[in-house]
């Protein structure tokens, strides 16, 4: 409004700052720049520290902002997908660990059963079992545990 009434935007305060320099609001900066773009000959805008803003510049700025938003959204989506994949990999690893743990527990249980069966065998049965295992090993046969017979 002041600019419409020919207020001089090049007047400086005691710290040599123009009204454009003093303002912190982006909206006010844009008002100054739009006015400068519409009224190029009215003032010496570089002396006021104002770079004119035309419609083309604003459209380019809006387009760039839209592209950045699109890129940001795409990056967020890619990050979300990556996290999902990492979560799936961790889940598979946990399942593999659980399966390995279950297999180890099962092997331990079989070993305990084998030891218990060997303990329950008489001395004569243990010797016969050992002899059978030696014969099978020397003939290339499959060695079986005491539980599998």
Mean pLDDT level = 81
Q: Give unreliable regions as ranges.
A: none
Distance between the termini: 103 Å
Structural class: mainly alpha
Count of discrete alpha- or pi-helical segments spanning 4 or more residues: 4
Q: What's the total count of β strands?
A: 0
For the largest beta-sheet, the strand count, sense and barrel status come to:
none
Instruction: Write the H/E string, N to C.
Output: HHHH
Helix content: 55-70%
Question: In percent terms, what proportion of residues is strand?
Answer: under 5%
Radius of gyration: 42 Å
Gross geometry:
rod-shaped
Task: Describe the protein's architecture and organization.
With 149 residues, this protein is mostly helical. It has helices spanning 19-22, 26-38, 55-120, 123-138. It is built from 4 helices and no strands. The termini are far apart.
Task: Summarize the helices and strands and which ones pair or pack.
Layout lengths: L18 H4 L3 H13 L16 H66 L2 H16 L11
Brief overview, please?
By secondary structure, this protein is an all-alpha fold. The chain has helices spanning 19-22, 26-38, 55-120, 123-138.
Highlighted features:
single chain; 149 residues; mainly alpha
């Amino acid at each position: 409004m002041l600019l419409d009434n020919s207020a001089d935007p090049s007047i400086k305060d005691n710290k040599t700052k123009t009204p454009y320099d003093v303002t912190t609001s982006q909206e006010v900066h844009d008002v100054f720049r739009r006015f400068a773009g519409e009224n190029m000959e009215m003032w010496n805008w570089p002396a006021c520290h104002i770079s004119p803003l035309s419609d083309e510049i604003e459209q380019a700025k809006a387009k760039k902002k839209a592209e950045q938003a699109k890129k940001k959204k795409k990056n967020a989506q890619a990050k979300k997908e990556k996290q999902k994949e990492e979560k799936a990999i961790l889940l598979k690893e946990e399942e593999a660990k659980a399966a390995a743990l279950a297999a180890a527990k099962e092997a331990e249980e079989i070993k305990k059963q084998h030891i218990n069966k060997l303990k329950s065998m008489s001395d004569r049965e243990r010797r016969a079992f050992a002899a059978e295992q030696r014969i099978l090993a020397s003939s290339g046969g499959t060695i079986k545990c005491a539980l599998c017979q």
